[in-house]
Amino acid sequence: MSPLRSSPLHAVLTARQARFATLLGMPVAVQVSNADQARAATAGVIDVSCLERVGLKGPRAAEWLAERGVPVPAQPNQWCATERDELVARLARSEFLIEGGPGGISVPAVRAELRAGLDGVYPVWRQDCALMLIGSCIPELLVQTCNVDFAAQPVGEPVVTLTQMVGVSVTVLRHSLSGAPAWRVWCDYTAGTYLWETLVGIAEELGGGPAGITAAWPALQAG
Amino acid sequence: MSRRLPRIEGEWIDRGRELDFSFEGQGFRGFAGDVPASALWAAGVRVLGRSFKYHRPRGVLSLAQHDVNTLMQAGQRLNLRADVEPLEPGMALEAVNTSGGVARDRLRIFDRLSAFLPVGFYYKAFHKPARHAGGWERVFRKVTGLGRLDFSTPHIRTPKRYDFTDVLVVGGGASGLSAALAAGQAGARVVVVDENARLGGSLGYQRGGDAESLARLRDLEARLAALPNVSLRPGTLAAGWYADHWVPLVDATRMTKLRARAVIVSQGAFEQPAVFRNNDLPGVMLASAAQRLMYRYAVRPMDTAVVLAANADGYRAALDLAAQGVRVAALADLRPQGQGGDLAGRVTQAGINILAGHGVLEAVGSGDRLSSVVLCPVDASGRPDASRRQSIACDGLLMSVGWAPAAALLYQSGCRMVYDESAGQFVPAQLAEGMFAAGRVNGVHALEARLADGTRAGCEAAAWLGFDAPAAEAVARTPGASHPWPVIEHPAGKNFVDFDEDLQLEDFFNAAQEGFDNIELLKRYTTVGMGPSQGKHSNMNAIRILARIVGRSPGEVGTTTARPFFHPVPLSHLAGRGFNPHRETPMHARHEALGARWMQAGLWLRPEYYAAGGTDKDECVRSEVRAVRGGVGLIDVGTLGKIELFGPDAGEFLERVYTGRFANLKVGMTRYAVMTDESGVVIDDGVVGRLAEEHWYFTTTTTGAATVYRELQRWNAQWNLRIGIVNATGAYGAMNLAGPLSRKVLSSLTELDLSNEAFPYLGLRQARVAGIDVRLMRVGFVGELGYEIHVAAEYAPALWDALMAAGLGHGIRPFGVEAQRVLRLEKGHIIIGQDTDGLSTPDEVGLAWAVKMEKPFFVGKRSLDIVRRRGPRQMLVGFELDAGAAAVPRECHLVIRGGGIAGRVTSIVRSEALGRTVGLAFVAPDMVAEGTALSVRAEGGVMVAARVVALPFYDAAGTRQKSTD
């Protein structure tokens, strides 16, 4: 039996008596409480660290991705989605983050290819704590935790923001989930617990809180 | 409520909501919307507090945040500002600075002793003998006390928030509101903040006896309400200005950090008191204070008033008094020619006697309140003619002699201010980029001019941001709004300049005479402007006085530094919700379950040791050390910095940033690496491994990771080598399996050949352990056979579990940082930052072997070359305590030679393996020979004998870490 991946938030979600299911080789909190849906409607904080991701950088990184048919955002600090709903974020002129969806994708294959060692394309080992923030009060949560004016970013514009949130370096982007805005936040694995606890504390004051991954992707319930 | 006026349009009080409260034990009743001072004044109370130094009775001065002498205690709330904080039902208020109550304050005796308490007396009188200093401090704290701190006060967690806008307008008076309107109409997002409970500023209370200004306010409010892009925030203080137009906004519940693209400062000006004898008597107040009492709180400030004026505002105040039924016995105008024009005509028509060229020689009290004022002619230079004095009975005296701009935010933003002789105030000469000023702070005082100036500033700010705003013409400053010398000397003194600190006019002359004739020195010696109001009512007069003393203009004297915060802010707002990041390794929950006792290492939480079986810390550490020396232990070293380096020039890059040689390092091997800065000082160390020809992986110290990564990026920005640097610190977990049985444990989980031949000491391998891809380094920080295992963070817990399970039969123990410190010290390994200091070179700390000076270049090489020619400053040596030492020194205890300091202990430990206490110490370069006797001063001055010994203390041949077993 293969060893399981471990989310940086496994312990704190276990303490919340979350219900777990294995997804992409990682025990994932599918439900934190019966209030998940209500929290997600207000200010839901969802652990999506299980999603596969890979990073790459180097002078040929953009070219290498394009050669593989991966859409490349035109500018740094932009993102786009692939046909399979993978997120491709351009973090700098020559640095990219690719994250798969809950259905699993080709990220491991890309990672394996990168590992072989390429000229001008270098792998960036991504072991992020990844969160999804959804709900009507997330804009308020963001202004309490981050000094970037997300409200000024036009809806629909594929902006990737590298900044600090509650003192932790994060990458943030806004996308749409079933027609509603959702924010994705990535931070260092080792800062994940602190970031999660801080965001959850504020989310709870706003009437939200931690929620399971099925609050974002109900279809995962069956699995 | 005998002094309440009939209902006034625009009043702030809600007459439908009466509030009961008490002051000094006596019951009172006010209205919602009152402040304690207004409610008490309405009830006829005149003494609201006692002054700081002389405990003189004080009443209303400004009603604008400067009435420091009326600070009150309300239960657990201390230093409540009675002049601005809202009255609340049930408040039990007490004056803070009394002994025995405000009416019978026993410390009022200080007023009679004032001749013995001149400025700076405490600097001269209470510093000898030194042993009494603590006692004097307690006495002073008691007699000059502010509120009583109740340590059981609940911790209020005030949230913080960020906010953003195009234009921030600071100050919601005439100029601010018109600026907001102009910017808002141009399409900008506008936030207007005002520290007062309601917007409008002086439009609401400086009415000049008619309804014009109030009508203007209502019109502005209506037009602003129609603009959805304008946010009006009364009760919000813009507490400071920081780079990039970050402005902390403080309201009743929280602090908001607002970033504006442009800032318009329209905070107005502080009305300034005149300086004359007894100008602090209750009943003597700024004209604007009386106007606030009348129009905000509907309180009759006095029955009979005298107005001391030196500008048009004083005449308007007299008209306001008359309009509200106050008899104005006289208006004394300091200016020889008086006001003239229509305004003077209206005052005269109101039956008010104008005495041009007159000032107040003194105010006279009866009991604790004003009963009359003595007026006399004043010449153009301010000299009074006391022979022509006249006394006028009154219970109120209004001072309207000038203004000081509320320019703190402008100063903080780097604005250059100059003194405008015509306006009589400092005005902006050169504003910082994105900063705009309007209204009184800009030297514009007349109502129509302020409105126009606000429109101009709003248009300019909007246009600066790229909005389509009409060009507006500059507005001329108002001449003569402030009198150049509102000071009347009196031989009996008690003519106060600073009401916070009880500073009199003579104090300034005395300070200057003692040589403190520079505004910054004067401030520090006299403490002018250092009280809670931060000089808002005193600095301008202090500048004028000093200017006259030294024969210069106020502009030449200059101002003191204006620092944030602009007004005092509750500490709860500053503390707020704390964002104190910490990092946890992937095995954090495992350590918790194993009983880890935590310690902080930079941002990290690390197990210091694992509590086991009720034994104490020392025994826990000893048993962990024994496990590693005799069996096998596992420590989480995931906090080490971890950096990957790619590219054809990676080897060359490492040659440049580390002191050693790396280009020749074979694939699959590691090497110890030392990093120095440009001055040759050791700043980090680690292990560099070569995974492939163009792929390197290396570690840094735990606390150095971020700095090293940043430095590497900085260097390559200059060198432009073909490399890619990746900070993988958080992406990898790491653990060190150490001890003579470590190979046995590891071999059960991997197919990798772990023999010395296949995987030698300092080797580097990529393999699978327990089905997980890992990187293995054979390193020996603790001096035993060991494997440092690096693994993707998400698999680290699984690997930890597998190693612990595999080691179960071998007695594996997790060990913490404390045991590792013992183990490494026995081996003589140094810790950067603990066994080095900010000047340590590699030569001084035994790392000369790791420096390859034959290389053409590395960072710090040139400096090391120079330093080597000079010789070492100190040397790190190993030492052991003599048997039977009287005490065990601790880290940082000093090495003493000939009564002087010859060094210090950097690390020390009692070694069970060695049976002695050993350590590392910096000593003078001539004390490094083995056997040199050291004398270390331990706790309590006990001298302890030690001697220099060779390093390492343990396994000098290094056979254990290269073990073949």
Can you put this structure into words, describing what you see?
The complex is a heterodimer of chains A (223) and B (965). Chain A has 6 helices and 13 strands. Chain A has helices at residues 10-15, 36-43, 61-67, 107-115, 138-145, 192-205; strands spanning 19-23, 26-31, 44-47, 53-57, 78-81, 87-92, 95-99, 122-124, 128-134, 160-165, 168-177, 180-188, 209-211. The mean pLDDT of chain A is 92. Chain B has 7 domains: 1-148, 2Fe-2S iron-sulphur cluster binding domain, sarcosine oxidase, alpha subunit, N-terminal domain (Ubiquitin-like (UB roll), Roll); 160-270 and 405-464, 3-Layer(bba) Sandwich (FAD/NAD(P)-binding domain), CATH 3.50.50; 273-401, FAD/NAD(P)-binding domain (3-Layer(bba) Sandwich); 490-579, Arc Repressor Mutant, subunit A, CATH 1.10.10; 588-638 and 732-757 and 765-824, Probable tRNA modification gtpase trme, domain 1 (Gyrase A, domain 2); 641-727, Alpha-Beta Plaits, CATH 3.30.70; 874-965, Aminomethyltransferase beta-barrel domains (Elongation Factor Tu (Ef-tu), domain 3), CATH 2.40.30. In chain B, helix 7 (287-295) runs parallel beside helix 8 (312-323) and helix 8 (312-323) runs parallel beside helix 9. The model of chain B has no long low-confidence stretch (mean pLDDT 95). Chain B is of the alpha+beta class and 965 residues long. In chain B, strands 8, 9, 10, 11, 12, 13 and 26 form a 7-stranded mixed sheet that branches. Chain A binds chain B through residues 2-8, 10-11, 26, 49, 57-58, 117, 122-127, 143-147, 149, 151-152, 166-168, 188-195, 198, 202, 205, and chain B through 159-164, 257, 259, 577, 579-586, 588-589, 592, 604, 638, 644, 646-647, 692, 694-695, 724, 726, 728-732, 770-772, 792-799, 802.
